[in-house]
Amino acid sequence: MGRGRRRTVRALVIVGSVLAFLSVFGIWIERQALNTNDWVETSGKLLHNAKIREAVGNYLVDQLYENVNVKKELEEILPGEVSELAGPAAGGLRQVAGQGAEKVLETSTAQELWEDANRATHEQLLAVLENKKEAVETENGEVTLNLGSLLTNLASQVGIGEDLAEKLPPDAGQIHILKSDQLKTAQNIAVAVKGLALLLSILTLAAFGGAIYLSRGSRWLTVLYSGIGLIAAGFAAIVFRHVAGGIVVGQLVTNDSVKPAGEAAWSIGTSLMISIATTVIVVGVLFAAAGWLASPTGGARTTRRYMAPALRLHIAYVYTGLAILVCFYFLTGPTQGLRTFLTTLIIAGMAAFGIHELRRQTEEEFPEATYGDVFGGTRDKVVTAVKDANIPERVGEQASRLRLPEVRRPGNGVSEASTEAPTTTMPVDAEDARLQRLEKLGELREKGILTAEEFAAEKAKLLGGGPSS
Questions:
Q1: CA 340, 342, 348: angle at the middle one, nearest 5?
Q2: d(C-alpha 196, C-alpha 26), whole Å
Q3: What's CA 65's distance to the chain center, in Å?
Q4: Single pTM value for the model
Q5: In whole angstroms, what is the distance from residue 116 CA to residue 182 CA?
Q6: For 81-124, what is each residue's pLDDT tens digit?
Q7: What beta strand segments (E) does 224-372 contain?
């Protein structure tokens, strides 16, 4: 490649990595803020956290005592002169309610009420953000989280009375999420975010795809660096989430007693961000693995040789397997929206292009590769190694079978074995093994597994270790 093209490829890889980093946050905001089911699932996790339950319980108790005259309620419940103790009882009951609120919120009833309240609020929020006329007119552009049902449930559990719902004011236990003066800004942000996640995802893959297309001659290296860029983007998003959490909680939560609950809420609320960043890292690992597989390294070349028969003889099965994986991911993924469909489609197209290029490369390197050549060669190497390992034992056995010649000493007529070992030639079995290895080397050279230089070197080694002529 020329210098200008190299710079363009590098710039596209860097831009793609930055866009991947931004995509993590775009997708997280879209799914967390604009998907009701995802938000309800997250809200359920919030109430399972002990610190958040404690904060919510304290808020409900405060709302109860701010909106209801608990002392008066107790005076009506307590009989006769005992009603005079309503004041101290109300103070003691507040402590009991504070301690028992967390236990009440652990019940399945409270959990269902919490999720129902969050679902209704999120649906109301989406209706307002999408500028549906009926919703805006009904709510006057305001969105609230109504915890009145939880408040009533808490009152009945601590013994104030089940008819408390009729005495609570309409705004008791309501948390304002969106006010009317924030409506227009919120609607503009929602429109921008809804399209931003899709745009960032497509631009990320387009940048990497353009870099790979332009880097003809060294595409494996660009694919490898693209994978490294995606991995870096995923880890950067995780680090940024941790740093931003401290800043956001510190700015929004000024009460030190509530900060633990705020930190827990941030951790749970951004857990989806970790999932998205992890997906980006996994995709990056696949890119890096594909780049290594196409590289000229020895390990990659050996792997391609093993894959060559399947890519040449059964390419239809390979593409079918890719199609099955893509369908499985799309059908079992967290969302099946337009963004997921287009992103999956683009990644599948890049994978198909990669398989096509890998097939072309293996055909050039191993045009006649068959399963017999690949796995048969490995089998022959193992057999040869086993035979070579047994040669010393067989030589020892042959030597032990050699009989020493008998000699006669003049005068006594007694035959004795000579104490001197006879001079012998190399055992026949060892010579046969050497010839077999020479024949095997010739076969490997004919098949192209050994080059002429490698064959000459192995032959010299083998003949150098033989007997002198």
A1: 100
A2: 6
A3: 48
A4: 0.67
A5: 25
A6: 555 555 555 556 666 666 667 777 888 888 888 888 888 888 88
A7: none
